[in-house]
């Protein structure tokens, strides 16, 4: 994924399926370096990780 698409997903009122290493995540914050984001697993609000945006994948739109 690129930074611009990640921004669109974060700003959207719709929910998008985003994965990191095959695991569904929420994007919590995009960082100013435009290369990294803080994400957490959809099932666990406590565990957060900073990852490269290019490693995030948009899977499909949740209806």
TrEMBL record:
<dbReference type="InterPro" id="IPR012610">
    <property type="entry name" value="SASP_SspH"/>
</dbReference>
<dbReference type="GO" id="GO:0030435">
    <property type="term" value="P:sporulation resulting in formation of a cellular spore"/>
</dbReference>
<dbReference type="GO" id="GO:0042601">
    <property type="term" value="C:endospore-forming forespore"/>
</dbReference>
<protein>
    <submittedName>
        <fullName>Small acid-soluble spore protein H (Minor)</fullName>
    </submittedName>
</protein>
<dbReference type="Pfam" id="PF08141">
    <property type="entry name" value="SspH"/>
</dbReference>
<keyword id="KW-0749">Sporulation</keyword>
<comment type="similarity">
    <text>Belongs to the SspH family.</text>
</comment>
<dbReference type="GO" id="GO:0030436">
    <property type="term" value="P:asexual sporulation"/>
</dbReference>
């Amino acid at each position: 994924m690129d930074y611009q698409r990640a921004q669109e997903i974060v700003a959207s009122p719709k929910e998008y399926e985003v994965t990191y290493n095959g695991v569904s995540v929420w994007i919590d914050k995009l960082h100013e370096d435009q290369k990294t984001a803080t994400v957490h697993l959809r099932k666990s609000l406590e565990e957060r990780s900073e990852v490269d945006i290019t490693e995030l994948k948009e899977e499909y739109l949740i209806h």
